[in-house]
């Protein structure tokens, strides 16, 4: 009987004195005392779980089953990548240029499904924190999971963008004022909370204990995630400003531009470390995470072009307003508005090229080099959400240039992303059943 089979049988035998028999056997073979055996975090310091290195050697189907209450301990913030991606697909179906009858309703159904997913995940994580007293602190201080906390805010940003799009499709015009007030209030709250959250979370990562600090040798684009929600305030500003009066649109657009610039430039600072890591240490094991690098330049492109599209209407309505009097002293409003749109388009194309390079680079890493770890991980959702930004930016540029080639490219990519989303959703459900995730040693809280 091999060591893996022996360990599986020992674990199945039960737990004695807080250390599994398998852990004790491995420790004895190495000449170590039981008390020296490292244990897997399980949210309750009085009941250590099996050592992580033991669990990783044993196929999950050979391990004894765990109650759902125990598996809930490993329900991490990374599950919000599911809602980010589902919202992203719903948003693409609302924006895709080539449409057919019923597409609006398909998108609406997916959006409503995303709201159910979001509610379920939020309740599950709240239960995890309620059942395991150390889980909350662990989630914010363990870098493996802490990097995914911002996916909660990213899901909210995607949901709000869908609210803006689908409400204009399906709600009567009389409800426009109520919706405008809702989007304005939520935009400012979202901007303030995500800005504070980014400062807090990076501070936590900067000051975490040395043994828990992230290593440059394992750097991935996921390091960008804490600043990502602030950056999406620019995308959200473009959606919210469509519903606002010109007076209110000015402040929202200016704040969105500042937030977009903040998020993009912080991301750029990380890119140099990321590319250095690739040159020095090679490709990451989790290849799908490489697509996260596609997000910042593509969402910046989409935000700049989207916000600039609102400028001519705002300038026209506020010709004599104090808010744009400075501009009125330096030229005709129509010319200035056209100039801003042209500048945004040119800068957007510049960023689109960067995002396209990261997209092709990540695709080459997956297709040409393969995926060393073929087990399902929630990072697989990175195949979808960052690329949603790339498709939206392609739609914006294609519409501005009246380019049928770019518009058809965006339509084809929308269809491919929908298929990828459906496949990953099925694979995610299978992974839960097969114990590939929500299992000791297999989730972000144990990496």
UniProtKB/TrEMBL annotation:
The chain crosses the membrane at residues 72-93, 105-127, 147-164, 185-203, 223-240, 252-274, 349-368, 380-399, 405-426. GO terms for molecular function: malate transmembrane transporter activity. One of its GO terms (cellular component) is membrane. It comes from the Eukaryota. Gene3D superfamilies: Voltage-dependent anion channel (1.50.10.150). It is a multi-pass membrane protein. It holds the Pfam family SLAC1. Keywords: Membrane, Transmembrane, Transmembrane helix. This is C4-dicarboxylate transporter malic acid transport. Signal peptide: none annotated. It is found in: Membrane. CDD domains: TDT_Mae1_like. InterPro entries: Mae1, SLAC1/Mae1/Ssu1/TehA, Voltage-dep_anion_channel_sf.
């Amino acid at each position: 009987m091999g060591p893996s089979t022996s360990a599986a049988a020992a674990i199945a035998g039960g737990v004695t004195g807080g250390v599994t028999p398998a852990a004790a056997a491995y420790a004895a073979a190495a000449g170590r005392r039981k008390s020296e055996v490292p244990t897997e975090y399980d949210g309750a310091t009085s009941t250590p779980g099996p050592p992580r290195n033991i669990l990783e050697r044993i196929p999950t189907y050979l391990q004894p089953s765990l109650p759902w209450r125990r598996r809930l301990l490993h329900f991490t913030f990374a599950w919000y990548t599911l809602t980010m991606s589902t919202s992203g697909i719903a948003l693409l179906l609302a924006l895709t240029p080539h449409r057919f009858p019923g597409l609006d309703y398909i998108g609406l159904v997916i959006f409503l499904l995303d709201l159910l997913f979001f509610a379920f995940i939020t309740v599950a994580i709240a239960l995890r924190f309620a059942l395991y007293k150390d889980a909350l602190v662990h989630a914010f201080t363990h870098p493996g999971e802490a990097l995914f906390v911002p996916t909660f805010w990213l899901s909210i940003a995607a949901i709000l963008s869908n609210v803006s799009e689908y409400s204009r499709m399906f709600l009567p015009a009389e409800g426009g004022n109520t919706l405008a007030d809702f989007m304005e209030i939520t935009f400012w709250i979202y901007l303030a909370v995500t800005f504070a959250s980014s400062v807090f979370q990076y501070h936590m990562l900067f000051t975490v204990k040395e043994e828990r600090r992230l290593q440059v040798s394992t750097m991935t684009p996921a390091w960008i995630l804490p600043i990502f929600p602030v950056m999406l305030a620019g995308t959200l500003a473009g959606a919210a400003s469509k519903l606002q009066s010109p007076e209110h649109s000015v402040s929202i657009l200016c704040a969105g531009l500042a937030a977009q610039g903040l998020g993009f430039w912080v991301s750029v600072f990380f890119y140099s470390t990321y590319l250095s890591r690739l040159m020095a240490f090679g490709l990451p094991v989790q290849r799908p995470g490489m697509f996260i690098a596609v997000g910042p330049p593509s969402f910046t492109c989409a935000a700049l072009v989207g916000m600039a599209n609102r400028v001519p209407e705002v300038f026209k309505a506020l010709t004599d307003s104090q808010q744009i009097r400075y501009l009125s002293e330096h030229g005709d409003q129509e010319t200035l508005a056209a100039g801003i749109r042209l500048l945004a388009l040119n800068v957007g194309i510049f960023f689109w090229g960067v995002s396209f390079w990261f997209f092709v680079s990540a695709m080459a890493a997956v297709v040409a080099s393969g995926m060393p770890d073929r087990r399902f991980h929630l990072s697989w959702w990175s195949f979808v959400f960052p690329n949603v930004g790339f498709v939206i930016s392609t739609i914006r540029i294609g519409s501005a240039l009246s380019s049928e080639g770019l518009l058809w490219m965006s339509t084809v990519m929308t269809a491919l992303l929908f298929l990828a989303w459906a496949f990953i959703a099925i694979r995610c459900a299978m992974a839960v059943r097969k114990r590939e995730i929500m299992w000791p040693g297999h989730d972000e809280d144990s990496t």
